[in-house]
Prior knowledge:
- With 126 residues, this protein is mostly beta strands.
- Helices cover 0% and strands 48% of the residues.
- Strands 2, 4, 5, 6, 9, 10 and 11 form a seven-stranded mixed beta sheet that branches. A four-stranded antiparallel beta sheet has the order 1-3-8-7, with no helix packed on it.
Amino acid sequence: xxxxxxxxxxxxxxxxxxxxxxxxxxxxxxxxxxxxxxxxxxxxxxxxxxxxxxxxxxxxxxxxxxxxxxxxxxxxxxxxxxxxxxxxxxxxxxxxxxxxxxxxxxxxxxxxxxxxxxxxxxxxxx
Length: 126
């Protein structure tokens, strides 16, 4: 059974940093594109960043470009989301999701992804 588990969320002040982790169980990330998505209260699920199963292509939402970095460690079967210069607009539940490699890497959109973790809360506040 394919499972994803997010961790690393928390409460930080504006300008701070967090690193989220997404660990896969029951399958290898080498055969799946991985995306990070987030949802704030009253808002739709938003694509934050996606990484190709090969790790050689990435996409970012305009709102996080230059601040967030997605990466993967195949040996640990883990994808990371490094988040810097956080602000209140980044407050949300963050989810990672997987999409089989044979399907198109783009777009980085939630309805394109099939397997989801439970999410981790990120709260930015002074």
